[in-house]
Amino acid sequence: MRRGRWLTARRVDLLLGIAATAAAGTGLASWAVGTGWGRWVTVVHALAGLSLLALAPAKFRGSVRTGLKRRRATRWLSMLLGALVVATVVLGVLHATGLWHGVGYWSALWIHVLLVAFVAPLLVWHIVSRPGRPTVADLDRRAFVGGGIALAAAGTAYWIQQLVVGDNRRFTGSHEIASFKPAEMPTTMWLNDTSPRVTASDWELTLAGELVPLETLHEQAAPVTADLDCTGGWWSRQSWDAVPLAELMQSNDAPTLEVTSLTGYSRLFPARDADNLYLAVGYGGEPLRRGHGAPVRLVAPGRRGFWWVKWVSRIDVVDRPWWLQLPFPLE
Fold this sequence. Notes:
single chain, five-stranded mixed sheet, 8 helices
């Protein structure tokens, strides 16, 4: 039996849909998770993405060639979707291998995520607009075998990729940059957040309604080694001059702490984590730079970079659950 008939277009579409869904879901999860178990989320994300490339030839030999012959008015939109999917996966590979880190603020990983935002609606349109949509019935033995072959090819590619990259990558997929060299650490912002221009002498820091002088933080600060893992695709280990929140705040029965930046950016944390949350005023014996959160920023070991609130101006004790917030801030 010819291969084209063995792995039909509907089976290929079903496998591509499963791989794309797994890649999107695990990609978002890997962006959010900063603890060790996130390693497996990152591995599954890589395998799902590489499976898309492994299935691409079968997709082209089947429905793509047929669709181009039919000359539908929307064929160019479908071709755009295919090109965006390939570009998304290729950018993921470039980021993972470190062959291209991007240009300026636009890292390969950020462009990868941005393209996913364009791919998602196009993919939904592509599936809904097709009369011969795949069904669960197409998930038969041949589909499982075809998916297994694609997954094996993805696994081989991932193994080769890891040999090329070596130990530079953290389990989240981020690459190491400027560890213990704070002057060389990148300066990045979350979405449209901006760096405020306020001098340290005019800075007011309020903890649970009480003003805390910055001099107090400087006097109590001690070295804390922690990894800042940015969602832009890099991580850096620094010795932060910091004070645990537990030493600065009295015990209370409220379940949540809200850490707010002077810019209005904020995140909620479980109050029980106060021992593992720090207010940093420097790194390596040097004061923080403005782009890195000066005069005071949050250090949150085990959490991704968007949890490390910069330019902290207020920490409040609140009664609402800490998880009652968007997983990724929109401000």
